[in-house]
Amino acid sequence: MTDQAILRIEAVEKRFGAVRAVDGVSLEVGSREFFALLGPSGSGKTTLLRIVSGLEAPDRGRVEIGGTDVTRLPPYLRRIGMVFQDFLLFPHRTVAENITFPLKMQGRSAAEREEQLDWILGFVRMEGLGARFPHQLSGGQKQRVALARGLVSRPALLLLDEPLANLDRELRKEMEIEVRRYQEELGIPFVYVTHNQEEALTMSDRMAVMHQGVLEQIGPKLDVYNMPATRFVASFVGAPNKLAGRTIEGDGARSRIDWDGITLIGRSVSDARPGDPVEIYLKSERIALSASADGIHHENRVEGTVRDIIFKGQFADYIVRAGNEVELVVSGPPSISGVDRGSRVNLGWAVEAADVFAAKDGEP
Ligand code: ATP
User: Fold this and answer.
1) How far away, in angstroms, is 283 Cα from ligand 1 center?
2) Is 42's C-beta closer than 6 angstroms to any atom of ligand 1?
3) What's the start-to-end Cα distance of the chain, in Å?
4) Is any ligand 1 atom within 6 A of the Cβ of residue 43?
5) What is the pLDDT of residue 240?
6) CB of 197 closer than 6 A to ligand 1?
7) What is the domain class of 239-362 according to CATH?
8) Which pLDDT tens digit goes with each residue over 165-219?
9) What is the pLDDT of residues 265-311, one digit of tens each?
């Protein structure tokens, strides 16, 4: 994609016995982007990141950083910084010693280390805490030290593996903004591994979704969110409703689907012939809900009954029984006039809100 790719991964493969941890992955990360690698546990994200860092060697393929082939270079020669989930701080060393450790390994002078330390402590807002030991820090401060250590040598690229997973929700939200600030102010690419889609969607510019060692989709985060390219991405990103139906007809762009006697229209993502079973993925926030039929202006319209309303603060989830007694989740404002538990309601959604995939057994 990018004009100036800092990281280029070409056809990388890695097996552990019979497991294909990374199965032919190619991607590029541009010089100033925040790139998220999203996938469920075991999808190969960490293995791919370890291959980029040099902690793991690929069986096949090539890794380039800043235009140099680094596939056979050890980690310390790759101009990368690394941050891990469990911080990995040395418990008996001070914050200052922990942070400057990579500089020491690179043989930088004491004066240089001091200068870089001052800069990075200010940058991560930890001034005055250099003499403390890790046990004297809060969880958020420990993670700032780990981030500072990853950045202190001014790497060309920062690799982060679930760095916020050990923090509680509130602190994680704060650190998401903080990490994003680091990336923007330093202007270097961050490659951020996570299984948390909210984190990937909040922080990244582009993202890739991995599943069973394979890159399922890569692109700007809103494209991945709004236009899933595969059934796995459609089911994994967002919290979609899944409807099972059969194709009536389709032209490659749009499909008409029979959903238990109701005709629906969706965006065809994979080919399906008339009569073939399909799955429709429909994100809850893309369904309109109204007490009156006049309130719905979409091509797809169905009626239903509200079974429950789950108040979530700024919005609510409406559990609506529609079609052949299927429960749909509809996210909407916390209250809608004329809509209560037990109300008959009208639902509607646009053709492009419904992603239609040929159904397969046993997956995902
Ligand atoms: P998680 O989010 O749980 O860390 P992940 O997406 O990062 O998952 P990986 O850790 O890369 O996934 O693992 C991918 C697959 O490779 C898994 O099936 C895992 O069990 C296997 N695997 C990873 N490392 C090794 C290893 N050193 N030896 C054997 N199998 C491994």
Assistant:
1) 30
2) yes
3) 29
4) yes
5) 86
6) no
7) mainly beta
8) 888 888 899 999 999 999 999 999 999 999 999 999 999 999 999 999 999 999 9
9) 999 888 778 899 999 999 999 999 999 988 889 999 999 999 999 99
Determine phi and psi for 167, rounding to 5 degrees.
-100, 150
pLDDT mean over 243-255 = 90
47 lines ligand 1 (CB under 6 A): yes
SS3 content of the chain, % helix, strand, coil (to 5): 25, 35, 35
76, pLDDT greater than 90: no
Query: How much distance in Å is there from the Cα of 229 to the middle of ligand 1?
Result: 24
- CATH superfamily of this structure's domain 5-232: P-loop containing nucleotide triphosphate hydrolases (3.40.50.300)
Tokens representing residue 281 in the block: 């993925």
Angle at the Cα of 137 (from 134 to 142), degrees rounded to 5?
Answer: 70
Could you give the count of Cα atoms lying within 13 Å of 311 in the half-sphere of its Cβ?
Answer: 6
> Any idea where the domains of the chain sit in the sequence?
5-232, 239-362
Q: Which two tokens stand for residue 216?
A: 């399922």
Number of other CB atoms surrounding residue 119 within 10 Å: 14
Closest C-alpha to ligand 1, atom 14: 44
Name which residue sits closest to atom 1 of ligand 1, judged by CA: 41
Separation of CA 37 and ligand 1 centre (Å): 14
Q: Which atom of ligand 1 lies closest to the CA of 48?
A: 11
User: What pTM does this model have?
Assistant: 0.89
Q: How far is the C-alpha of 205 from the C-alpha of 192, rounded, in Å?
A: 11
Residue 351: CB atoms within 10 A of its CB come to 16
84 lines ligand 1 (CB under 6 A): no
Q: Which atom of ligand 1 is nearest to the CA of 56?
A: 27
Rg (CA), the chain: 24
